[in-house]
Amino acid sequence: MKRVWLWGLLVGVASGCSTMTAARYSVSIDNHQVLKQFAGAKFALTTLDPPAAYASTCRLVGPIEVMDGLTIPQFIQKAFNDEFKFSNVYDNQRGVQLTGRLETIAFSSAASELVNGWWDLAMTLHAPNGRSMRVQSRYHFKSGFDAMTACNHTAQALGPAVQDLIFTTVTDPAFRSLVLSSCAPGGCPETLPAPPASLVPTWERGYEWGFRWSSPSGSSNLVWTVVREEVTSDGAYYVVREGNREVYYTKNDLAWFMERVDGAVDFRATPPEQRFAWPLVMGKRWETKVRVERPLRRTSEERQRVFVVEAWEAVTVPAGTFGAFRIVARDPTGKITSETWFAPEVRQSIKRKTYFADGVMDRVLLEYKLGASVAPAP
After folding, report:
1. What is the block-wise mean pLDDT of the chain (378 residues), using blocks of 10 residues?
2. Cα-atom radius of gyration of the chain, to the nearest Å?
3. According to the 3-state scheme, what is the secondary structure of the chain?
4. What whole-number distance in Å separates Cα of residue 87 and Cα of residue 265?
5. What is the pLDDT of residue 12?
6. For residue 120, how many other CB atoms are within 10 A of its CB?
7. Fold of 208-375
């Protein structure tokens, strides 16, 4: 996610202990793009309670603190409202007055090989009518080997980590329901327009999508499950399991990177194949050129595709009816190789047609699970 962030760090020394002070929060362009879709609605985060306890000391060097005498929970609450104000949806008088509680504030400056770190932030938001939503975000960053450098970088990463938390919150369909279900008089429009663009969705461990595929050679059901995230020197990946197969997608844009069968690499794309270009908008066009290797078969091929977002459609599949972007892929000759219908609500493609010389393989969504609930086929 692109960020507008003024990296800054003040380091004070007192009684032999250093204090790492994170810079003031800067609003995110990506968050602004999402919040613009709520034009006409008004809301504010009026309170944000801290967790029962959280540790702010980094590697025994000293505490991580925030400028202007704010606590970290106050910093996060102010960041939410700064984003709302920048996007002209803030009103703490007539708007929906959201309240929240932080459940987790945690960080590591030495998560992997002593030079990678993360911030974990989790919270629950409540609307006045009793509705609520829970959101969690983990932000990865490069820390450093020596303690002072690592802790400085950890403090610097707090702002982007909060940007990610806010992005995860406002792109969750539950947030739209939360702020529209409790509108104060005159504080919300009767309806909001359909999203004009779809930003890259976030996935979490446990998300599942059940499909049925069919082709001239047969048909079967399959389930995709997000089983973990992996961070390597090349980047961060979601790992999705289908039976004994694990498929790797880049976390920043869901590009298809690699498939393993029983731990052995079956497919690998260099660079990862960008099947979506975010944000998805009508008419968007992009090209890919990748080398696809199959180490087990000792084969490889060069693959070129041109992708175009050709339509926004209401698409009915066994899991229900959804608004979806239709993305068409063509080879260099102009021949259609695939059609994909991506539904932002489901955070996944709900329908796909792949064209081969001997026929068409169809895949449709049967059911899905985002979080604790399952949305089955009617």
Report:
1. 40 50 91 81 93 84 88 96 94 90 91 78 88 89 83 92 93 78 49 59 95 91 96 91 96 95 94 94 90 94 94 82 88 94 93 92 94 48
2. 23
3. CCCCCCCCEEEEEECCEEEEEECCCCCCHHHHHHHHHHCCCCEEEEEEECCCCCCCEECCCEEEEEHHHCCHHHHHHHHHHHHHHHCCCECCCCCEEEEEEEEEEEEEEEEECCCEEEEEEEEEEECCCCCEEEEEEEEEEECCCCHHHHHHHHHHCHHHHHHHHHHHHHCCHHHHHHHHCCCCCCCCCCCCCCCCCECCCCCCCCCEEEEEEEECCEEEEEEEEEEEEEEECCEEEEEEEECCEEEEEECCCCCEEEEEECCEEEEEEEEEECCCCCCECCCCEEEEEEEEEECCCCEEEEEEEEEEEEEEEEEEECCEEEEEEEEEEECCCCCEEEEEEEECCCCEEEEEEEEECCEEEEEEEEEEEECCEEECCC
4. 45
5. 35
6. 16
7. YmcC-like fold (2.40.360)
Q: Where are the domains of the chain?
A: 9-180, 208-375
Neighbour tally for 318: CB within 10 Å: 15
Amino acid 234: pLDDT: 82
Q: Is 9-180 a domain of CATH 3.40.50?
A: no
pLDDT at 194: 47
- AA identity, residue 142: K
Residue 95 phi, psi (nearest 5): -80, 175
Residue 114's pLDDT is what? 65
CA distances from 100 to 97, 123, 131, 181, 275 (A): 10, 7, 12, 16, 36
C-beta atoms surrounding 68 within 10 Å:
9
Which residue, among 319, 67, 330, 75, has the nearest Cα to 210 in the 3D structure? 319
